[in-house]
Amino acid sequence: MIRFEGVHKSFGAHEVLKGIDARIGTGEVVCLIGPSGSGKSTLLRCVNGLETYQSGRITVDGVRVDTASRTIHDIRTRVSMVFQRFNLFPNRTALENVMEGPLFVLKQDRAEVRARAEALLNRVGLGAKMQAYPQSLSGGQQQRVAIARALAMQPKAILFDEPTSALDPEMVGEVLQVMRALAEEHMTMLVVTHEIHFAREVADSVLFLDGGTIVEHGPAKEMLRHPKHERTQDFLRRVTHPV
Length: 243
Ligand code: ADP
Ligand code: MG
Prior knowledge:
The structure is a single chain. The chain is α/β, with parallel strands linked by helices. It has nine helices and ten strands. The protein has a six-stranded mixed beta sheet with strand order 6-7-8-3-9-10, sandwiched between helices. A four-stranded antiparallel beta sheet has the order 2-1-4-5, covered by helices on one side. It is globular and about 50 Å long. The chain starts with a strand and ends with a helix. The structure holds adenosine-5'-diphosphate and magnesium ion (MG). Magnesium ion binds at residues 40-41, 161.
């Protein structure tokens, strides 16, 4: 569903992605882990055209991601993104946030869009909060609205960029639970996360990114229990046993 082939990306003279090769199959959950500054967000942002890359190739469902607006529109109808800081429209209710993309980007019928948005908010446990504005919702609730909004586009894949990192600890579980349910329904997901337990339980495979290269990748359970590379071992020791 998502394929990276020799992807290079620089900001000026600073090379951030140094030749990324990876693939995420249909229905797979892949967790992307790695230290701060290793290029995780940049890699995700290149997939849906929020960033451009200089060489190599990214394809989503067979469509090459490039800067042509036609392709960007195509790609964004195929992949949704969930951000660390939710990025909801503050002046729109939860329901309006979920309806926005299908109405104005996909230009779908309002009544159908509304019915689907309501069903999605129910599904993420927010049936009672449809008319609430983001500022009156907790972080965990806002992130669940953001996931409903991502699903409303009926994407083929969802990208998550540290979806629980901005949450108070007691709200992490409710968001991971929604993500786990999506995984069980075989949504294709590429998830940047430091939740190693989640990765071990839910992911099919894990990519460890360090300094702009994928240092190690493999089946989640195997790689997270017995990482082969010393840099992976160091990183996992630090995130699972913070000093
Ligand atoms: P991560 O998500 O793994 O923490 P990022 O992809 O955000 O890493 O950043 C990787 C590197 O690229 C960092 O050194 C960061 O400072 C740099 N970077 C990210 N975005 C920009 C930008 N818009 N302009 C310049 N440098 C950037
Ligand atoms: Mg990041």
